[in-house]
Automatic annotation (TrEMBL):
<feature type="domain" description="Integrase catalytic">
    <location>
        <begin position="126"/>
        <end position="289"/>
    </location>
</feature>
<dbReference type="Pfam" id="PF13333">
    <property type="entry name" value="rve_2"/>
</dbReference>
<dbReference type="InterPro" id="IPR050900">
    <property type="entry name" value="Transposase_IS3/IS150/IS904"/>
</dbReference>
<dbReference type="InterPro" id="IPR001584">
    <property type="entry name" value="Integrase_cat-core"/>
</dbReference>
<dbReference type="InterPro" id="IPR048020">
    <property type="entry name" value="Transpos_IS3"/>
</dbReference>
<dbReference type="GO" id="GO:0003676">
    <property type="term" value="F:nucleic acid binding"/>
</dbReference>
<dbReference type="InterPro" id="IPR025948">
    <property type="entry name" value="HTH-like_dom"/>
</dbReference>
<dbReference type="InterPro" id="IPR036397">
    <property type="entry name" value="RNaseH_sf"/>
</dbReference>
<dbReference type="InterPro" id="IPR012337">
    <property type="entry name" value="RNaseH-like_sf"/>
</dbReference>
<dbReference type="GO" id="GO:0015074">
    <property type="term" value="P:DNA integration"/>
</dbReference>
<protein>
    <submittedName>
        <fullName>IS3 family transposase</fullName>
    </submittedName>
</protein>
<comment type="function">
    <text>Involved in the transposition of the insertion sequence.</text>
</comment>
<dbReference type="Pfam" id="PF13276">
    <property type="entry name" value="HTH_21"/>
</dbReference>
<dbReference type="Pfam" id="PF00665">
    <property type="entry name" value="rve"/>
</dbReference>
Length: 289
């Protein structure tokens, strides 16, 4: 009487000449047992891992090394129709050293006066239609040459689909930059009673800013004092921008940084998968329309 091991080897040796069903009838082992034995043999997992790794690597490189496990999982489904467990993707990324690193969120307390503007948004970071709820903020990005300095990005995010609908890059942080962004927003088909939310930065407590927002028919909303989470949606975009930007260009000069920011925001809006929707912001907006 042959052992199970010998029967498995018998089926494997003649599988190229006869059907598995016929060979199973000549033995006492089950089909499930045979395939479990086959998959446990050296080289089986390695070949399968290598094939899947190549697909993961293609997605990872296409995202310029900015995609993590969840976005790679969604991209494999969208591009190849593959449903891969996130644990498997994480295991292969660890095995082959694919690392997508994002810094821990860092928020600053903003001691500026609160004024009379309330927190209308109240952390309700979802909208039923485009340009109904907007968040605006300013961040700074380091420039290395000809000497170390900062460049400032003022951006507006639509909470409906996370799209960056207006932005301005400037070597100086002042009210003119904010007004340039507001001029872009004024040309958009804003929803009735749209909300524009900011933190308590000095630009947003400025009386001219408040008047401009009111003239545009927008409802002004402002975070509570020292509460960074009230504006976390736009801060989240800035966090990804700073972490992923180095893969899109250099930060040597003002011109380099400006071009890189433009390239990244174009990629973010048109191509970067939002895990909530499984597609990019503009793809989601068009799909929903």
């Amino acid at each position: 009487m042959l052992t199970k091991q010998q029967q498995f080897e018998f089926i494997h040796n003649y599988a190229s000449e006869f059907s598995i069903s016929l060979l199973l009838k000549l033995t006492t082992v089950s089909r499930a047992g045979y395939y479990k034995w086959k998959n446990s043999q050296p080289g089986q997992h390695q070949d399968r891992d290598l094939a899947l790794y190549q697909l993961i690597l293609d997605v990872f490189n296409e995202s310029k090394k900015t995609y993590g496990v969840r976005r790679i999982k969604t991209a494999l489904l969208n591009k190849h129709g593959l449903i891969i467990n996130h644990k498997c993707i994480r295991r292969l990324m660890n095995k082959y050293g694919l690392v997508c690193v994002l810094p821990k969120p860092k928020f600053k307390r903003r001691p500026q006066p609160f004024g009379t503007i309330g927190n209308i948004l109240n952390r309700e970071f979802s909208a039923e239609k485009p340009l109904q709820k907007l968040c605006l903020d300013i961040t700074y990005i380091k420039v290395n040459h000809p000497y170390p300095k900062w460049i400032y990005l003022c951006a507006v995010k639509d909470l409906y689909n996370h799209e960056i609908v207006a932005y301005d890059v400037s070597p100086t942080q002042n009210m003119m930059q904010v007004f340039r962004v507001l001029n872009q927003v004024s040309k958009l088909p804003l929803a009735d009673q749209a909300i524009l939310h900011t933190d308590q930065g000095f630009q947003f407590t400025n009386k001219y800013y408040m008047k401009r927002v009111a003239d545009m028919g927008l409802i002004q909303s402002m975070s509570r004092r020292g509460n960074c989470w009230d504006n976390a949606c736009i801060e989240n975009f800035f966090r990804h921008l700073k972490a992923e930007m180095p893969h899109f260009g250099t930060s040597e000069t003002l011109e380099d940084v400006s071009m890189t920011i433009n390239e990244y925001i174009n990629y973010y809006n048109h191509k970067r998968i939002q895990t909530k929707y499984g597609m990019s912001p503009i793809e989601f907006r068009l799909h929903a329309a």
